[in-house]
Amino acid sequence: MTSAKEISAMAGFGGFLQQVTPVVLTFNEAPNISRSLERLHCFDEVLVVDSGSTDETLKIVASFANTRVVTRPFDSFAGQWNFALREGGIQTEWALAMDADYILTDEFLAELSALGPSDNAVAYRLAFDYCIFGRKLSATLYPPIIALHRHKQVHYIQDGHCMRAQVVGTVGQLQSRVQHDDRKPLARWLASQAKYADQEAALLLSKPASELRIQDRLRTLMVITPWLVPLYCMTVGRGALDGWAGIYYALQRGVAEAVLALKLLEARLASRQEKQQHD
Fold first, then answer.
1. Helix (H, G, I), strand (E, B), or coil: what is residue 165?
2. For position 8, what pLDDT does the model report?
3. 79, 89, 116, 273: which could form a disulfide with 75 (CB 3.0–4.6 Å)?
4. Exposed / middle / buried, residue 76 (Cβ in 10 Å: 0-12, 13-18, 19+)
């Protein structure tokens, strides 16, 4: 396995890492940000776009010599990313879009250092290993995303609670995986799910069924996915092999689906009540 020190040495001799600026979005990420930044010391600069953290996040970021912080009040994930790419002062041709709970492995850094994109290559997708309290799960529902890109040729759009990178050109796939390891408190996760569910419900209700993916059509039925998703995680996703970490992940996914189902049901009942009042 290539050590972090060797990775840094490769970067110093002209590796592709020198052409990349990691960009990290933060808001009260003290439980995560140190572990993420420790894996980024081999980059010349790391841009941190903070949304007004009130915990120890910025103090931790300041302890890393290669970081630069810009602050922008949060409006949407797409808004934050477009600001970072257009107004963040990125000096390299390539940017690596990261959440504060992404951990770059030695294998990933080695692959990135040796990367030689063609002139037609605009972006690369990253796949993930999902971790629960540091334990890597056998599988995850977390999809690959476009995260490494020529930042001047990328624009982000909001899609429910997620953002998606829009590119025109060749998109490759990196083979090494990034670890996703969020260790923020459960109460914070639960509060986030309520906000995310509002956005997802609005998106699902705004589209006709014919335009929805199969999994989203199941979500609109409201009574299927809250039990089907955790069952899938434990069986097909091999969560049963991961012990308590697998159970924790399955329960998380079930709760997320249940909150979304409640939001959809709430909207349906409110619409029915409003219709009855007008009749």
1. strand
2. 52
3. 79
4. middle
Range of the domain at 222: 186-278
Query: Final residue of a domain: which of 180, 197, 215?
Result: 180
Residue 27 to residues 46, 61, 94, 161, 162, Cα–Cα distance (Å): 16, 12, 24, 16, 16
Q: Assess contact for 65 and 139: CB atoms under 8 A.
A: no
- Measure the CA dihedral 5/23/161/123, to 10°: -80
Q: How far apart are CA 92 and CA 19, in angstroms?
A: 5
**pLDDT tens, residue by residue, 138-173:** 999 999 999 999 999 999 999 888 889 999 999 999
- If phi > 0 it is left, if psi is from -120 to 50 it is alpha, else beta; for residue 89 that is left
CA distance 156 to 77: 9
42, amino acid identity: C
The answer to whether the pTM exceeds 0.85 is: yes
What helix, strand, coil percent values describe the chain, rounded to 5?
Answer: 45, 25, 30
| Number of domains making up the chain | 2
Tokens of 257: 């689906």
DSSP structure string for 29-73: -TTTHHHHHGGGTTSS-EEEEES---SSHHHHHHTSTTEEEEE--
